């Protein structure tokens, strides 16, 4: 199984991050020295994916522009002799092939994935949600790609969450048949605390086969007219064609303010020049 495309839905309004996202897409909010979406694209690139399909809206073209050349800026940097920065800026434009698909109405994650049907056609593809950041030597989408290729099935990424947070996620029910790998039998969207079938929560990483479009086209819109990807995944689970992999590595939810700020500190602490002064400043701010 050869997989080259990754679908990244970015058309949402980022209401969890307002008012910061009133005029700036949530995907372009900076974490340390890069916008959120660049970390997601780098994860895809490092996993061998070469074609990024942004599902976007008419007001967020700046996301695609970030992965293009900027001749005026590059000329300014070159004349100023800032060649290291120039090299870094140009490298962003050369990372991957960018394909843009317009989502004219924001009708849920399932609808966003369905918008990619004509681009993906009969090929398997990855899906990465832009505000879920994952880091590690072998983390995130690369783990799912390995599983999908070896098992020739659709795969979702899961993490174990505390019992008091299961109501924030889609939760899977299934059997572990290999270390960290599960046959999914059922998916429950945001179950009430105390009723969840497990603590394995679906996070924003998927590898899907073209048959997902068949299920998405038959999903009935739910609250707000949205088409939920979870409902289509349940169709795969009913056919015994869905696996889950427990993801390793560090994860940050960039749509949560605590997680977003923690991610900034995480990366700054890994910068040799910033680590000591940052720790010193944080200690000054911490209450006794």
Q: In sequence order, what are the helices and strands, one letter per element?
A: EEEHEHHHEHHEEHEEEEHHEEHH
- Within CATH, the superfamily carries the name Spore Coat Polysaccharide Biosynthesis Protein SpsA, Chain A
Structural class: alpha/beta
Q: CATH topology, anyone?
A: Spore Coat Polysaccharide Biosynthesis Protein SpsA, Chain A
What order do the strands of the largest sheet run in, or round the barrel if closed?
Answer: 5-4-1-6-11-8-12-10-9
Calculate the terminal CA-CA distance, rounded to whole Å: 56 Å
Write structural notes for this entry.
The structure is a single chain. The strands form 3 sheets. The protein has a 9-stranded mixed beta sheet. A two-stranded antiparallel sheet has the order 2-3. A two-stranded antiparallel sheet has the order 7-13. The protein has a single domain, classed as Spore Coat Polysaccharide Biosynthesis Protein SpsA, Chain A. The longest helix is centred in the C-terminal third of the chain and has 14 residues, at 272-285. The chain has 11 helices and 13 strands. It has 288 residues and is α/β, with parallel strands linked by helices.
């Amino acid at each position: 199984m050869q997989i080259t495309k990754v679908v990244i839905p970015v058309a949402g309004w980022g209401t969890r991050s307002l008012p910061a996202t009133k005029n700036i897409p949530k995907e372009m909010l900076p974490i340390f020295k890069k916008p959120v979406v660049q970390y997601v694209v780098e994860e895809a690139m490092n996993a061998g994916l070469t074609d990024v399909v942004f599902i976007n809206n008419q007001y967020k073209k700046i996301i695609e522009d970030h992965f293009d050349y900027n001749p005026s800026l590059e000329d300014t940097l070159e004349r100023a002799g800032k060649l290291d920065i120039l090299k870094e800026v140009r490298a962003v434009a050369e990372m991957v092939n960018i394909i843009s698909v317009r989502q004219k109405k924001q009708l849920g994650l399932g609808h966003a994935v369905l918008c990619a049907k004509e681009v993906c056609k009969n090929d398997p593809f990855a899906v990465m949600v832009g505000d879920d950041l994952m880091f590690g030597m072998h983390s995130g989408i690369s783990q799912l790609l390995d599983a999908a290729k070896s098992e020739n099935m659709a795969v979702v990424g899961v993490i174990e969450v505390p019992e008091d947070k299961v109501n924030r996620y889609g939760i899977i029910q299934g059997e572990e048949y290999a270390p960290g790998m599960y046959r999914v039998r059922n998916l429950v969207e945001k179950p009430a605390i105390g009723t969840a079938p497990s603590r394995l929560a679906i996070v924003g990483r998927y590898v899907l086969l073209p048959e997902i479009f068949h299920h998405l086209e038959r999903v009935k819109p739910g609250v707000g007219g949205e088409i939920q990807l979870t409902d289509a995944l349940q169709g795969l689970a009913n056919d015994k064609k869905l696996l889950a992999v427990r993801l390793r590595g560090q994860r940050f939810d960039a749509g949560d303010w605590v997680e977003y700020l923690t991610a900034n500190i995480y990366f700054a602490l890994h910068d040799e020049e910033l680590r000591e002064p940052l720790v010193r400043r944080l200690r000054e701010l911490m209450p006794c």
